[in-house]
Amino acid sequence: MTNSDVVEATIKFVKKSLIGSEGGHDWFHIQRVYKNAMLIAKEEEVDPFIVALGALLHDIADSKFHKGDETVGPRMARNFLSTLDVATDTIDHVVKIIENISFKGGNTQKKFSSSEMNVVQDADRLDAIGAIGIARCFNYGGFKNRIIYDPDVIPNLHMSKEEYKNAKAPTINHFYEKLLLVKDLMNTQTGKRLAENRHLFMEDFLKQFYQEWNGTV
User: Fold this and answer.
1) What pLDDT sits at residue 102?
2) Which of 34, 63, 130, 217 could bridge across to 70 with cysteines, CB 3.0–4.6 Å?
């Protein structure tokens, strides 16, 4: 199979695998991350094939929906790519991207890094901020039946990985615990540039949110 054939087969596999997924982690999330990744890859010295596969498979089985098991996604990706006779080193690289891409509270040290991972991670992080990020944040909060906001529940900015995974705080807290931190965590120059406007949009949203909450507008 050509690289193009592998990418097309991967798209079909991911679409089928994510039928019925939560709205913030469905095929459309993957599609947006894939487009973001391909856009960033144009300005970086990377292997676009690895970037494409990493973006398409990065959330094939998010641990949040598999009882916290972080091995399911990498295993599914490896098993699938093996059926397409993809080179072993390419599969290994893609799997390492999947294993290390997650935010995990922001306090976890990377165990793997590559230019391709930097691109995919930036693409995924872009989809966590801005208008789309806000929509995904509240969609997931509703999915988990979390309250929107409680002024008495203060955001925890120093969570461990386990605390982050098990957090049940109001949805607004997630802006401070992750979304507003993303801009300064971007790896590539393109990612940093694209994150700027999305970050400002979130700040404007929060300003309006608090004004409406307090009845001042």
Assistant:
1) 82
2) 63
